[in-house]
Amino acid sequence: MTITKTGVLLINLGTPARADKKAVRAFLKEFLSDARVVDLPVWVRQVLLHSVILPFRTGKTTNAYQSIWDQEKGSPLLFHSQDLLHGLRDELGEQYQVELGMRYGEPSIWSATEKLLKAQCSQVIIVPLFPQYSSAASGSAIASVMRGLLPKQHIPHLSIVSDFFHDPNYIKAQVSLIAPHIEAKQPDSILFSYHSLPWRQIEKGGSQCQISCQQNQPCAQISPENRLCYRAQCYETSRLIAQALGINAYHVVFQSRLGRIPWVGPDLTTAMTQLIQGGKRNLLIASPSFVADCLETLEEIGIRAKGLWQDLGGKDFTLVPCLNSEPLWIQGLANIVKANVRQKQVNPVEII
Ligand SMILES: C=CC1=C(C)c2cc3[nH]c(cc4nc(cc5[nH]c(cc1n2)c(C)c5CCC(=O)O)C(CCC(=O)O)=C4C)c(C)c3C=C
Ligand SMILES: [Fe+2]
Q: Where is Fe(2+) bound in this sequence (predicted)?
């Protein structure tokens, strides 16, 4: 008797193949050609990409990648995602086939999906590794799997983990990672930093909370009205982590803005300046929207934000690493996967 495996498709954003201009340009071109990322009419996007973004950003972004590139292992985002893949394979065992696909670059979502189809998995659980749902990251990853499956003769049963911003397994892993750093450093300020999004994309999300959104106030506790809003999910993650850590004082901030349009704030660097003005000197930053360390954590926070903190007169600066392949996160992710498995009751009468 052949026992079919349950497929698991982990998806992360992707990263350049090398830290040189050619590879970074190719990565940025693919990434920023995505209509869910730069959500403008196609001709505007292409003009912007070729006349502004690629000529002016490639050099700067290449330097940034070079500053975090591991001589042996390459891009942190890739090797941490691969370590997580291997850990999850061990944790889930023989009944599962786990693959990793990147939305941009290699290994592609397509090559990972092909492996799962070839293994004739009875069902596939799609896990975009973005805890808070955004159209730009999670939506784009899910849509990409769908496009690949569209022409296929057989499409397996699919489960999609669209978000896990409040999943107890994710929160527990975050707390176990952050707690020892707070204990050791006793910071006077704690920031939870999330990837920002253009306000336009938050508004397009169509969440009910838009009607009453106070853009300069924290989002209310999660409810049916704001359940689908990226910003509200970020605030809820922070609330849950803080509750479990037993801390009352913390700030939610957003990073990685691009261009001149309005993005979700408060901005990381503005918040740091205000903390210094308020007499704070010992800062701890955790970045719960990234499950794997990457350019945005290691370079933007670990190098640039740290430099700013020191220039402003700050003393201690602690960046909590991402979940990466922490054992508790591997176990937690395995639980998230198992909770999404369809336990089909097979009635013997139905088997012909
Ligand atoms: C939390 C997930 C992410 C969301 C949402 C997201 C939105 C988003 N990003 C850009 C533009 C850039 N992002 C870049 C790097 C980058 N972004 C994420 C995650 C999310 N992005 C990650 C994990 C990374 C790092 C990848 C790595 O190789 O380590 C970059 C490239 C670097 C740079 O030039 O600054 C760009 C550009 C937009 C426009 C956007 C939403 C609209
Ligand atoms: Fe990004």
A: 195, 296
